[in-house]
Design brief:
Elements lengths: L7 H5 L2 H23 L1 H23 L11 H4 L2 H28 L15 H30 L4 H33 L2 H23 L13 E4 L10 E4 H11 L1
Antiparallel strand pairs: 1-2
Helix pairs in contact: 2-3, 3-5, 3-8, 5-6, 5-8, 6-7, 7-8
């Protein structure tokens, strides 16, 4: 019986894999140079691009506003929605950069002047993660819900309803996922790569937010209206009035 085990050294010696690893290394070096020259712009473009990719993935998996499967993906793709995710991610880049610098200064993992391989303060690491989740997570979600709502053209009442609908579920989901990711991020990632790392992990998170933001509870339904006849209870002489079930459903949905 032959063994299917492949030595990792053999894989690394494969020319194709080696070329790909070399390409990633060059890409990382180019990013590092760009970050050193223009940190905020570099983080903005990276964060916005990853947000747009996440929304494209969300629209690929499901498009709740268009159920017509006869149309191609490009015909169903909402480019404006993807642009909104890029704009939001782009605008958050400098803010996230400043936040990571603040955490680096306020909660240093090693004492000043310590060797690079010195033990890390677990207490400081826990404080970083705690501050990020208790301060940045709610602020980021408020910025997301408010920013996306404004770009979608919602008025104040609809924004308030959207906030009530999405904020708490998204915050609870955030606390289930992001503490572990940020623990790895703050512990192992250099400062220049923390926003790209969190944005890369956040592709799935942004995918979740994109799907959550596209929920149709506050949007008019695209299903055809059903009309039913209701007999008046007190005045049988009055002809029955047609009632629009869609209007009734919308009122119940908004009132929840």
């Amino acid at each position: 019986m032959t063994s299917s085990f492949v030595c990792p050294c053999c894989l690394l010696s494969c020319p194709r894999i080696y070329r790909r690893m070399a390409a990633f290394k060059r890409l990382g070096a180019a990013y590092q140079r760009s970050f050193q020259r223009r940190p905020n712009l570099t983080l903005s473009v990276t964060n916005g691009s990853l947000g747009a990719i996440a929304d494209i993935l969300a629209q690929t998996l499901t498009n709740p506003q268009d159920k017509d499967e006869r149309r191609t993906w490009l015909e169903r793709w909402d480019a404006r929605r993807t642009a909104r995710f890029f704009i939001f991610g782009f605008s958050m880049g400098p803010f996230l950069n400043a936040w990571n610098k603040f955490l680096e200064f306020r909660f240093p993992l090693r004492v000043q002047g310590a060797a690079p391989n010195a033990p890390v303060s677990l207490a400081a690491l826990g404080k970083r993660v705690g501050a990020d989740q208790l301060i940045m997570a709610p602020i980021g979600l408020c910025a997301f819900i408010g920013g996306m709502g404004l770009m979608e053209g919602r008025n104040f009442e609809k924004l308030k309803e959207k906030f009530k609908q999405l904020f708490l579920p998204a915050l609870i989901a955030n606390w289930k996922v992001w503490p572990i990711a940020q623990l790895v991020n703050f512990r192992y990632m250099p400062l220049a790569f923390r926003v790209p790392f969190s944005a890369s992990c956040g592709v799935l998170w942004t995918l979740y937010l994109s799907l959550l933001n596209s929920q149709g509870a506050l949007e008019p339904s695209t299903e055809p209206h059903e009309r039913v006849e209701i007999e008046p209870a007190e005045n049988p002489g009055v002809p029955p009035h047609p009632v629009d079930e869609h209007k009734m459903t919308s009122q119940v949905a908004v009132g929840r």
